[in-house]
Amino acid sequence: MRISFLSAAAIILITGPAAAGVTVIGSSSARLCYEATESRLMPAFDTLRRCDEALNQEALSDYDTVATLVNRGIVKLRMGRQQEAIADFDAASKRDPDQAEAYLNKGLALLRAGDAWEQALPLFDTALAKRTRKPALAYFGRAVANELGGRVKEAYRDYRLASRTDPKWTAPRTELARFKVRSQ
User: Fold this and answer.
1) Cα–Cα distances in Å, from 162 out to 20, 49, 89?
2) Tens of pLDDT, residues 95-137
3) In degrees, to the nearest 5, what angle opens at C-alpha 158 toward C-alphas 72 and 24?
4) pLDDT score, position 13
């Protein structure tokens, strides 16, 4: 079976606020930047200023610096500043090559470009290998990338993995309902 369209849920992933923020503890600007990544509301311009303040004016630990770079990237991505977001994810992974969420979010950013699915695939693999906090989102992103590349069997497998990993999340089940599986 070949699918030549993406469903509404896959398009929401590509254009919506789905992301994997990195937790920052305390009451600093870095914490407020993190909280913005967890909100379903679109970030305000002030949110980006807080992220910048955290990185430029606060004495952050290495972990909090990397976390804030990832979180600022998510804020930028949600504001439609895709290239700036990718630069933040790259800066985070350069500072900490084991930061899984940097790879996951860069993969999501590349999917939003629409034609970068091939570049996104290994990023989802890396996020999973480095034990992302949101494996279902990584499987789902990889499924979308596979589907964009015409790799239907792989897409189906990844939607199933996303559904099994987070059974309460309805998007993977919605995607699976589009498929017809035939035994041969």
Assistant:
1) 15, 34, 23
2) 999 999 999 999 999 998 778 999 999 999 999 999 999 999 9
3) 25
4) 52
> Helices 62-78 and 45-57 meet at what angle, rounded to 10?
160
State the pLDDT confidence band at 3, using cuts at 50, 70 and 90. Answer: very low
Using one digit for the tens of pLDDT, what is the confidence trace for 13-69?
544 445 666 666 555 888 888 888 887 778 777 889 989 998 998 888 999 999 999
Taking each helix axis from N to C terminus, what angle separates 45-57 and 29-38, rounded to the nearest 10 degrees? Answer: 140
Q: Is the separation of the CB atoms in 107 and 124 below 8 Å?
A: yes
Nearest Cα residue to 92 out of 113, 109, 111, 80 = 109
Look at residues 110, 111, 94, 93 and name the one whose alpha carbon lies nearest to residue 102.
93
Q: Return d(Cα 85, Cα 78) in angstroms, integer.
A: 9
| DSSP of 120-142 | HHHHHHHHHHTT-S-HHHHHHHH
Residues of the chain with pLDDT > 90, as a percent, come to 62
Nearest CA-CA partner of 16 in 91, 90, 86, 111: 111
